Amino acid sequence: MSTYATLQKQLQNYVLSGERDVLSEVMDGPRLDALGRLDVYATGYQLRLIEILDADYPALHVLAGDDLFDQLARAYIAAHPSVFPNARWFGLHLPQFLAGDAAFSAQTVLAEMARFEWAMNLAFDCTDDPILDIAELASLPGEAWSTVDFQLHSSMQRVELAWNVPAFWQAVTRAEDPPIPAQSPNAAAWMVWRRELTIYFRSLETDEAAALEALQGGGNFARICEILCDWHEPGQVPTTAMALLKRWIDEGLISGLRHQVSARLHLR
């Protein structure tokens, strides 16, 4: 007779990988034999994981359709058995899986939709960072502008998209007929972020995308201006940089600033 711990392990192995060591420990029932009774648990577990993926990727489900979504979900479950105590993170690898698996990689729109929806999930789950007030920027000493660093809100996610997945997702969310999937010749940068309980997203022009990338990498205001020189005349750069910075603050993308004059982080 197996110990209780061994039985638990054997049952888990059957549910996760189909190993039948536990079969000899299970009795036939009046309606189902031992294997059928075990399959109740295995099937239920897999269906629960599919439900989790459906909750995290609702627009992907609509885009793929019921049959293909069920197929890709089961393939993902087989390739990436859940290792997370918190089911919230089970779908973490789905975008990479769809991009790399031979059965799905040719339909690049699937991986892009998954990438976009996962970025929104990450943005929603981020910490509640403070938001910089424009008045704090106005009070910054003039000598600090050459070294001031801006702290991006932790919800900010960046994705590269060639398909019209944002419009498709928005239509699904509004219970409207989604547009026909369409691909642009070149991928464009998009950002996703959260303010309070609302998720926002928009596309980025090339210069703004480069400036935001610099901020994420620890660049300061002077570095932003340096980068913008690749797209704008030197005399226009300060005005352009300030316009971008004001927009980011208005959108709630900046949570703090630091400058070397006071070596103090200003947070609301």
The CATH topology of the largest domain:
Outer Surface Protein A, domain 3
The helix/strand series, from N terminus to C terminus, equals HHHHHHHEEHEEHHHEE
Tell me the number of helical segments per DSSP (H or I, 4 or more residues long): 11
- Tell me which CATH architecture of the largest domain applies here: Alpha-Beta Complex
The major sheet is characterized as: 3 strands, antiparallel
What's the number of domains?
Answer: 2
Q: Spans of 5+ residues with little confidence (pLDDT < 50)?
A: 261-268
Rg result: 25 Å
Q: What is the percentage of strand-forming residues?
A: 5-15%
Number of strands: 6
Structural class: alpha+beta
Mean pLDDT: 85
User: Looking at the structure, what is the overall shape?
Assistant: elongated
Indicate the CATH class of the largest domain: Alpha Beta
Distance between the termini: 64 Å
